[in-house]
Amino acid sequence: MTTSRIATSLPFIILIAGLLLATRDVFRALDRDHGDDDDNMIKVTAEELEILPLVGAVGPESIAFDPDGQGPYVGVSDGRILRWDRDQLRWTDFAVTSPNREGCDRTNNHEEREHICGRPLGLRFNKKTGDLYIADAYMGLLSVGRDGGLATPIGAQRPEGVSFWFTNALDIDHDTGDVYFTVSSTRYPRRRFLEATVTGDDTGMLMKYDPTTKTTTRLLSHLNFANGVSLGKNGDFVLALESTQCRVHKYWLKTSKAGTSEVVTQLPGFPDNIKMNSKGEFWVGIYSRRSNFLEWILSFRHLGEVFVRLPFEPLKLVSSYTSRKSVGMALKLSEEGDVVLQVLEEKSGRLRFVSEAVENERDLWFGSVVMPFVCVFRNYQSHN
Length: 384
Description:
It is a single chain. The relative contact order is 0.15. The chain contains 7 helices and 26 strands. The chain is of the alpha+beta class. The strands form 6 sheets. The protein has a 5-stranded mixed sheet, with no helix packed on it.
């Protein structure tokens, strides 16, 4: 967009921003959540959550347990993968996603250097090899062996014409070794995720990497911030989350529907990651609730390109509002991914910006791309 067009739009944008800030009654009228059914609600109190604080970093986006049941392992904001030592009750360094570590451990703002230090997001263990697979927002798909250390790229190539991609989440077919992963954007890096949202960026993709042929295939395109991904219990399909649209896509890998896709669920919040439990059901982490106000803001995406170029920062208004609407929320979906079975919510503010919920034995673990700790809801099934 040219400077003259931005200048022409500027008075209108300022007027809209002023009206939004001034008309609190309108905000309240639009500020209604999409309700949940109390029959399937688990309400958690802050006292029921155990906190495992991090040191020197924040944002344990994804949680994984190794084939021996040890862990959890989490990726954090300075590019490290940490492992929880159950004997010493502390986090220990396990791996890094970038060889360039100078200055990574000594900064308060890891976002400024995450393109250098790495930003690990999705984590999955290969049950056959014991290797940990990592989706790093900047370094791409990597893996590291049982002893940890420096993770190495697995060889997934970008499609022709794609010079950059923001890799986000992954899952592994343990029979074939195929890796399914999402690319949130080929236009915006991770630290500009809010711009990707308000501009309606639809460059997100669901991809498949075949380690035998070393080929990368695009399965779904034109997704608005593609995020979590998980295979179904029998490997018949893969679910992919589209965060901006709050919906779940099912891409069929087998059966007569193979090669086709459908939207199977509309969610009550903006989803992040999705992981399957031992029963074949799926837990979805919810970053923030949906509301009429947020949907109203996102409906004017034709103004998004102007917003991100203005000399002041109107995106802070949206970010601040989203933060206020964030509660500790996770959803359990059916084996087909098409029915919400349970809604878990913690409203005190202790658990916020949930990126992932993972069942391990009788406990439910929560990650967050923002918070400086991991949360555990011990013996959560006794609350059902």
